[in-house]
Amino acid sequence: MMDPKESQELIFKTVKEKSILKQDLFNNTLLNFKVLKQVLKEVGDDLGERIMAIDDRVIVEYRDVDEHEVHLRIAGDILIFNMHTNVFKFDSSNSLWKTSYLKDDETKGYAGVINIYNFLNDSFKYNRINDSGYLVARLFINKENHYMVQGKRQLGFLYNDLINAKIDREQIKALVQSVILYTLDFDLLVPPYDVVKEVSVYEMKQISDGLKLKTAKRLGFKFEADSAEFK
Prior knowledge:
Blueprint lengths: L3 H49 L7 E7 L2 E6 L2 E13 L10 H4 L6 E11 H5 L8 E8 L5 E5 L2 H4 L11 H16 L8 H4 L4 H6 L25
Antiparallel strand pairs: 1-2, 2-3, 3-4, 4-5, 5-6
Helix pairs in contact: 1-5
């Protein structure tokens, strides 16, 4: 059994190292999130002005919700950028742990996380609480400002070099543009007839409030972390 004094010292050492690391990571992620907000506003304002000159029915709108969340509406879509207030460690099965980058300093394997979701604007406008949104991507930033993105298609392979890639304003803008293009590439599809052919009286009464019949961009599509993206 470990001596009580040794145990107390070990507890102090662990709290000191991990807690300070996590506080530093949180602050660093928050700083990058503030830059992300600035980039989103710039991109949104530019796109909004240009599209408004052509057709004022198409709305592009930036909305700063709070310190950890911001929305960018582009026509019928809303992109929600949400900074998680906790810090995470990459799973032990992640192939990054086999690299010298993390072997030399395991604290580089901790990261702040910014989640990016896509919803239909009408889901919020009409309070359709059963509608689905999708996790488009997750941005990870470690203590050295190295970053990687977990996502689908181009989002999963354009930004997956944690060892060498350092995040800055230019990289954030490129990521934002990739996320927007990826989102706009998905259209609202008609669900299979057999899925919606039966409707209860209660559901029918609730249609006007949008509470029951689920709407989503792609029926059956959901974000699933491909293990290959992390291994």
